[in-house]
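Follow-up to my post from last week.
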Amino acid sequence: LAKTTQPISMDSYEGQEVNITCSHNNIATNDYITWYQQFPSQGPRFIIQGYKTKVTNEVASLFIPADRKSSTLSLPRVSLSDTAVYYCLVGGLNTDKLIFGTGTRLQVFP
Amino acid sequence: GAVVSQHPSRVICKSGTSVKIECRSLDFQATTMFWYRQFPKKSLMLMATSNEGSKATYEQGVEKDKFLINHASLTLSTLTVTSAHPEDSSFYICSVPTSSYNEQFFGPGTRLTVL
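User reply:
Got it. Predicted complex:
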């Protein structure tokens, strides 16, 4: 499983766009990139997943460059409720185990 | 997506007792479930893979005789912490993988406090 590297923490203010970048230099050809969000004392929640280029859903966008060695989770106009830990994971189509890295602790201020 | 529940949500026990945590997949049959442990301000650590009808697969450093896992049906996996000690106090989370892509549905977690 590819190892991921993320900033330990980030601060933002309400209404701003937040971009969290994850490095995964050893990503394999069949690996997908998945982001999870975790609030205190809760299980992680799936946010978005992609393989290449750009993916967008109702809560976030995921940007993946052509070499796929990194990815950026973009949260538009964050609110206080987006304060959480965000995890980037990579794994293959048939990979069962998810190995969590350190995650990025996002703090949104009013 | 799949709905995953855990019971109990929190438990406090005395040192030396055993505690059973249930993980249920409410609307998805799961031949595999995963158990994680998370200490305060730390990331999730995979403990074991629970396999329906067969033995669980434990990650390196996780004592299989201390953390007993039973996956008796396609919707239920249990984790029993035997002879619990204060250092076992943690947040235990289970997950159910989807059938294809690298996505799992996580339970709400169980907070274990051993006195």
